[in-house]
C-alpha cells in the first residue's frame, strides 16, 4: 500500500504541473454538474417526484453516481483498458516479471487525475440535494454510505477488469469496455424505474443500478443491511470470476516472441 500511494503521489505531482489542463478539467466537471442540475430542474417542474424520489434525493443519487465513476476513471480506468494493448502487442511480460503483483501494477499503470479534479463539483451536487431536503444524515448513516460506496467501487472495478480480461480470447475489447460506461448512465436514476428482465440484468450480470442506489439508501436512512450483503455477494462473485479468468488468460497468453 505504501508503494501504491507513493506511486500515485508522484503521478499527481507530475500532472498538476500542467495547470491549464487541471483548470479545464475542473471546468468540465462544473459543466457536467450544471447539465445534471438543469436537466432535473426541468423534469421536476412537471412532476413532484420520480418513483418516490424528491428533487433533493435525485441530486444526491446523481452526485454519488458521478463521484463513483470519476474515482474509478481517475485511478484505474486507463490502466485496466491498457491490458488489451499489452496483450495485443505482446508486452505483458514486462509486468509479469516485476517483483510486484501484475494485476495491481497494470490497473495503476496510468492514473488520470484530470477526472479527480471534477470531484468538487460532483460533491457540490450531492450537498445541494441535502440542502433541498432540509435534513442531513447521521454519522452512522455516513459510515454505512461510505462502506457501501467502497463495495460499489470495487464491483465497478472488477466489472471493467473482467471485461478487459476477455482480451486473452478475443484480443480486441475496446468496444465492449466502453459500452459499460453507456450502461452506467442508468446508475443516475432510481432503481424502481427499471422493471422486468432489464432490472434483473442490471442488478446481477451488469449491476450498474445498485452501484449508486444502494449507498444512497443509507444516506436516506434506509438501514436495510440486505443491501450490504447483496453488494458483498456480487463483489465476491465478480472477484472469483476475475481470478479464474486471469489464471486461464495467463496460461493462454503467448507473447510476441513465439
What is the typical, i.e. mean, pLDDT? 87
Structural class: mainly alpha
3D shape: globular
Number of strands: 0
Written account of the structure:
This protein has 258 residues and is an all-alpha fold. The protein is built from 13 helices and no strands. Helix 8 runs antiparallel to helix 12. The mean pLDDT is 87.
Task: Summarize the model shown.
The chain is mainly alpha-helical. The protein has helices spanning 2-15, 19-43, 55-89, 93-96, 102-107, 113-116, 119-133, 139-165, 167-170, 174-184, 196-201, 208-219, 226-252.
Q: Notable features of this structure?
A:
258 residues, mainly alpha, 13 helices, globular
Topology:
Blueprint lengths: L1 H14 L3 H25 L11 H35 L3 H4 L5 H6 L5 H4 L2 H15 L5 H27 L1 H4 L3 H11 L11 H6 L6 H12 L6 H27 L6
Helix pairs in contact: 2-3, 2-7, 3-7, 3-8, 3-12, 8-10, 8-12, 8-13
Amino acid at each position: 500500500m505504501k508503494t501504491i500511494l507513493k506511486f500515485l503521489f508522484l503521478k499527481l505531482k507530475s500532472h498538476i504541473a500542467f495547470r491549464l489542463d487541471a483548470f479545464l478539467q475542473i471546468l468540465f466537471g462544473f459543466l457536467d454538474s450544471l447539465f445534471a442540475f438543469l436537466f432535473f430542474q426541468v423534469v421536476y417542474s412537471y412532476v413532484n417526484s420520480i418513483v418516490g424520489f424528491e428533487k433533493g434525493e435525485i441530486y444526491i443519487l446523481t452526485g454519488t453516481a458521478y463521484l463513483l465513476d470519476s474515482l474509478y476513471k481517475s485511478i484505474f480506468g486507463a490502466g485496466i483498458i491498457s491490458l488489451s494493448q499489452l496483450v495485443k502487442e505482446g508486452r505483458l511480460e514486462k509486468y509479469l516479471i516485476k517483483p510486484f503483483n501484475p494485476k495491481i501494477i497494470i490497473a495503476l499503470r496510468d492514473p488520470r487525475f484530470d477526472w479527480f479534479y471534477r470531484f468538487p463539483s460532483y460533491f457540490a451536487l450531492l450537498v445541494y440535494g441535502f440542502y433541498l431536503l432540509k435534513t442531513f444524515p447521521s454519522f452512522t448513516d455516513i459510515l454505512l454510505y461510505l462502506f457501501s460506496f467502497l463495495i460499489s467501487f470495487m464491483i465497478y472495478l472488477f466489472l471493467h477488469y473482467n471485461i478487459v480480461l476477455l482480451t486473452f480470447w478475443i484480443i480486441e475489447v475496446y468496444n465492449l469496455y466502453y459500452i459499460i460506461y453507456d450502461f452506467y448512465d442508468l446508475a443516475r436514476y432510481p432503481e424502481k424505474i427499471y422493471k422486468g428482465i432489464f432490472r434483473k440484468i442490471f442488478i446481477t450480470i451488469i449491476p450498474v443500478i445498485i452501484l449508486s442506489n444502494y449507498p444512497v439508501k443509507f444516506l436516506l436512512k434506509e438501514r436495510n443491511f440486505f443491501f450490504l450483503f447483496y453488494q458483498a455477494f456480487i463483489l465476491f462473485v465478480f472477484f472469483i470470476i476475475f481470478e479464474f479468468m486471469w489464471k486461464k488468460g495467463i496460461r493462454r497468453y503467448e507473447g510476441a516472441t513465439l
